[in-house]
Amino acid sequence: MTKYFLYSGCSLESSASNYLISVESVFKALGVELREIEDWNCCGASIAYIAANQLSQIVLNARNLALAEAQGGYDIVAPCSSCYIVMNQVNRELEEDPALMKKVNSILAEGNLTYKGSVKVRHVLDVLYNDIGVEKIKGLAKKPLKGIKVGGYVGCQTVRPYGEYDSVERPVVMDRIIEALGAEPVDFSHKIKCCGSGIFLTELDYGYQLVGDILDSATSKGAKVMTTACPLCQLNLEAYQERVNKALNKSYNIPVTFITQLMAVSFGLDPSKDACLDRNIIPVGKALKAAA
Fold it and tell me: What are phi and psi of 121, to 5 degrees?
């Protein structure tokens, strides 16, 4: 059985628990074993933390990488796009800068750890598309989502910073997975536009406009369901819809799912236990019933 380390990060352990559970359920159905990195820590993917002490953030991530290396050395799957972009970037910087690697290892040594650079950090979409493959996903789609138009929102971090598994400017991986589930991906202009990320903490009006533009772009092309692979994107697009409606005089009421939730439904898994659809704010059941 293929094995990976699952780095859930902080969001999937709390506000995006439906993402975590659906990831675990889907990978189990695909015959893939996900193991937790024992004693993992937060990656520090917050603006405040990065601005305060960049070296501390590098060491935090190097510690996770060192733990993974010591516990089996499997690739790390990071469903959270913020975790992915930070962890992957730190891993690349350590690989390319021997002096930085030496300095970081001198700090890790205080916790009896060392990192040699043998671990890879992968986004969940990368593993689903390149390791598992769309044909296997399609083969498990017992209940194809036929007749459903889905807006696959990639966001600004999922394929960055290096575009290792998909095009940074014209990503297609999520759409190919949506197709494998039997649904129809809609092509909309704001697929990779930023949703505002943490700007909602300080600049609400600007955030509302960003989210409104994304929803308008997708729904104008016929999307009845939105899906993403980023917990912060999902939160911003779903949780703020009512406020966006008031601010922009709109009437959005479109479900925003995680791609693994749609996969779980298509695989015929339990909608509540495995897909955790009941944890979404905007009900998605009615939209999914449109499937033939």
Answer: -110, 125
3-state secondary structure of 238: helix
Query: Backbone dihedral region of 108: left (phi > 0), alpha (psi from -120 to 50 degrees) or beta?
Result: alpha
SS (H, E, C) 39-90: CCCCCCCCHHHHHHCHHHHHHHHHHHHHHHHHCCCCCEEECCHHHHHHHHHH
C-beta separation of 237 from 103 below 8 A? no
Q: Does 48 have pLDDT greater than 50?
A: no
CA gap 152, 174 in Å, rounded: 6
Phi, psi of 3 (to 5 degrees): -125, 145
In tens, the pLDDT along 176-188 reads 999 999 999 999 9
As a whole number, the mean pLDDT across the chain is 93
Instruction: Give the pLDDT score at 45.
Output: 80
DSSP labels for 159-209? TTTT-SSS-SSS--HHHHHHHHTT-EE---TTTTS---GGGGGT-HHHHHH
Angle at 57 between CA 94 and CA 55, to 5 degrees: 70
pLDDT per residue as tens digits for the range 105-149: 999 999 999 999 999 999 999 999 999 999 999 999 999 999 999
Residue 37 clears pLDDT 50, i.e. is over it: yes
How many other CB atoms are there within 10 angstroms of residue 233's CB atom?
27
Q: How far apart are CA 157 and CA 228, in angstroms?
A: 11
> Which tokens go with 17?
């628990």
132: tokens are 């598992």
How far apart, in whole angstroms, are the C-alpha atoms of residue 184 and residue 176? Answer: 10
Cα 153 from Cα 20, distance rounded (Å): 18
**Taking the model in full, what pTM does it have?**
0.95
Q: How many distinct helices (H) and strands (E) make up the chain?
A: 14, 8
